[in-house]
Amino acid sequence: MRPLEPDPEPAEDRLSGPEEAYELLQRGTALLAKRHAAQAAVVLARAAAVEPGKGSILEPLGRALFMSGQLDRAMETFETLLEIDPSNDYAHYALGRTLIRLGRRAEGRTHLKLAVALAPESRLYRGGLGRLGPEDR
Questions:
Q1: Which pLDDT value is given to residue 10?
Q2: What is the pTM of this model?
Q3: Residue 25: which of 59, 1, 73, 67 has the closest Cα?
Q4: Dihedral class, residue 53 (left if φ above 0, else alpha if ψ from -120 to 50, else beta)
Q5: What are residue 7's phi and psi, to 5 degrees?
Q6: In this structure, which long-range contacts are made by residues 64-70, counting pairs with CB atoms below 8 Å and at least 24 apart in sequence?
Q7: pLDDT of residue 134
């Protein structure tokens, strides 16, 4: 009996297209759930490269970038998400929070207002807007 020869190519490397993106998305969101934001951002960025323009990948990628302090990249990711779906209430909320962290308070407030307008029942969005206090004059 011949011994089994090792697989010359790991199964992960054989994946391509949507399957690979799905596996990467699953790994990235698991890392994000464990609060390993920087590692999640790396994995999710790979998924976004395989399947560009997928909102289901861009949203957790933006969150991972935000949580790991990569604010400029998070802002770009949430802006891309809004180009895909301008009515995405979470993307407006997340972009608003990111802009505020970047010191762009007025722009951030605008996006938080849009998030509240799109999902008025969201306590998260209303709370984020309320924490800003009264508008600067």
A1: 46
A2: 0.83
A3: 59
A4: left
A5: -65, 120
A6: 64/28, 64/31, 64/32, 64/37, 64/38, 64/40, 65/37, 65/41, 66/94, 66/97, 66/98, 66/101, 67/32, 67/35, 67/37, 68/37, 68/38, 68/40, 68/41, 70/41
A7: 82
